[in-house]
Write a structure and sequence with these properties.
Helix content is 35%, strand content 22%. The chain is of the alpha/beta class and 331 residues long. A hairpin with a 5-residue loop joins strand 2 and strand 3 (46-50). It starts with a helix and ends with a strand.
Amino acid sequence: MSEEKKLKTGITTGTAATAAAKGALIKILKGVIPDKVDVVLPDKRILEIPLILKNDMVGVKKWSGDDPDVTDGIEIFAKVDFTKDDGVVQIKGGEGVGVVTKPGLQIKVGEAAINPVPRRMIEENLKPLLPEGVGVEVTIIVPDGVKIAEKTFNSRLGIVGGISIIGTTGIVKPMSLEALIQTIKCEIDVLLASKVKDIWLVPGNIGEKCLKAFMDVETVIVSNYFEDALNYLRERQVEKVGVAGHPGKIAKLAMGYFNTHSKNSPQANSYIKKVLNVDDDFNTVEEICGKYCFDKIAEEVSKKVKERYGFSKVDVVLFDMKCRLVGKFYD
């Protein structure tokens, strides 16, 4: 049995919202709430989703399978009201559903962060149940959405006030890495749509904090996945990029390792000592930071990124763990 088959799948927030909406419609049509409803997924497969009832609202307790997702276990509810628009399903975001404030996403600025596929799923699952001559207004509600959104990338994407209702297949497969890379690409899309010319890649929160204390620029946190981010920037025809962080991580780019996870790349100590002509015995790169200037390392990083991806300009800024500038190269 393959590793993927051993892992449990879950449902997306879009599937949970669709099931909640269908259950809420059945409640006002028949006056009863079924224990579960069938949801037709985008690929036309049918998934049976259990329902819950709280505060007179029909909802779904989402599960994420073996994908470590902050939305695992959250409750998503729906409120349905009849309208006079024959056969029309209107969809709104209620409490805990974010609102889009920046261009570049699939949803227009000012609208609820309910992506096109979940919107289509709700429409397609509710329309067959509508009596002739009426439509419905569906409001999706996530009571803990504001709190959960603080643990997501939503604020970086300009989505405020709650989580996003997302999903393209209706099912969450255990592949968090892919979800992370899609988030990185989405963040780049938002910055480019906002006409940001100076995008900097940083491995994490510390790199971002150090860089923003040093200069006012827009950043994308890429973890170890510089390769995916740099490839996507070139795909979007970006010519200039900045890279910042601790030299223990960033020097790996100069070594030719663009996935900087320790499983995929060696430590940079030996390379740094060789490039900087360090003869003394240091245990860590951080120790070297206190004794040597890393401008040469920054220049080598710039050279390698340009050589590999074809950018015309690559600026590099390096900080130690106390956010002190230890090296820089401006192209």
